[in-house]
Every structure is written in C-alpha cells, then in structure tokens.
Design goal:
6 strands; alpha/beta; four-stranded parallel β-sheet; 9 helices; about 220 residues; globular
Length: about 220
C-alpha cells in the first residue's frame, strides 16, 4: 500500500510507527486489503494527515469508522467523494452550517476543502471491510488515533476539538481543556439529530470566533 501522509506528521508520529502494536496493525490491514474489498483505497487511509499538516491543524473533527459502501470513503471522516450521494449525517452537518452561518449548503459531500484549511477529519478507525461496519475496530487503530489526539493536545495550542456523540465525547479526557476549545454535542446522525441533540449547537460559528480570538484565520465552511 502506497499511503500518502504529510512529512510534518511523520516527524510527530515516527515513534508511534515503530511500536509493536502499530507494526502488527499494518500487517493486519495489508492482509485485509489483500484478501477482501476494503475502504478507503489503500493510498487514502492516511488522507486526513496528508490534507491537513500538523502545523496547519486548527480544528479536529472526530468520526468513528469509514463509510463501508462502494466509492464513498476518501479517508476523511464524514466526507464522501465528489458525485456521491451525500450521507444523512453529512446532510445534517450542512443544515447546521446553513442556519449557523447563513450560507447555502454545498452540492458536494467532499470535505477535502475543509481538510486543506487545517481541519483534521479523523476517524478513530482508519479502515473497514466493505459492507461490514466496525470490522476493523479493536485491531490497534484506536490506540493510534488516541495518541494523535494526545499529541495534538500536548504539542499545539488553541485547537478546536469537535466531539459529536457519546463515542467522540469520551475522547475529551485526552485533551487539555485549559489550552484548547472542546465543543461537544449529540451526533449529527438522523437518530440523534431528530431528537434535538444536534441542531442549534452553533459549533461552526463558535469555532471561527475562537480561532479569530486567538489571531488565527477562520475556516471557510
């Protein structure tokens, strides 16, 4: 697998790449991709770390698992490729942006445009077997992505962490809230959003207000 990952992350994560659990994880993932159809494509497993450099990362959004349908996942949480039907959770994210920032919803669910501005779109698990949600969980990915969150918290300042839903909220313990902004709410999935746990959280305007208060450029959502 010829993966793409920005050099800035390689320096930060080099010690992690050398650990036994990570080597075992990569062996497992290579075997899975050889024997089964898996997503995202091998070259895009680390896409989140290629689009948003370590130095440029200003916002972290945490997802759980890549999409497991054909042609959807592109290595960024909640994101799908151009010309792919926008999934329900992402529709609700766009609806919230529409009301929060008074801007029209985009026609594409490809969030590379966010990632290129320094939004790290991180799934806790970076790969999945086709049509089998959660199939690569508890193989080591979560150890790795927890360490990513911890390192961002330790080595950077004034990053906005958006934690949506119970799974993501648990990650707040990895983040130093005295030097970063943690925004939590229900998950944007229809089940949670329609119960009133998502809409009106104003996370996107809150993130931009915080970034600007720290002398950083806002995100063009």
């Amino acid at each position: 697998m010829n993966v793409r990952i920005d050099q800035s992350w390689k320096k930060v994560l080099n010690a992690e790449f050398e650990k036994d659990y990570f080597k075992n994880l990569i062996q497992y993932v290579k075997k899975e991709y050889t024997e089964h159809k898996c997503f995202p494509p091998g070259s895009e497993i680390f896409a989140a770390f290629d689009h948003s450099t370590f130095d440029n990362t200003r916002v972290v959004i945490l997802g759980q698992d890549p999409y497991h349908g054909a042609g959807q996942a592109n290595g960024l949480c909640f994101s799908v490729r151009d010309n792919v039907q926008i999934p329900p959770s992402l529709i609700n994210i766009f609806k919230e942006i529409e009301t929060d920032l008074n801007m029209p919803a985009p026609s594409s669910g490809n969030l590379e445009r966010w990632a290129d501005q320094g939004v790290l779109l991180l799934n806790a698990t970076l790969s999945v077997r086709a049509h089998q949600a959660g199939s690569h969980q508890n193989k080591g990915w979560e150890i790795f992505t927890d360490e990513v969150i911890r390192l961002i918290s330790q080595r950077k300042e004034n990053v906005v962490f958006m934690l949506w839903g119970g799974f993501a909220k648990k990650k707040s313990k990895l983040i130093d809230s005295s030097k970063h902004l943690i925004l939590t709410s229900g998950h944007p999935s229809p089940l949670s959003a329609n119960r009133g746990y998502w809409f009106g959280n104003k996370h996107f305007s809150k993130a931009n207000e915080y970034l600007q208060s720290k002398g950083k450029n806002p995100i063009n959502w």
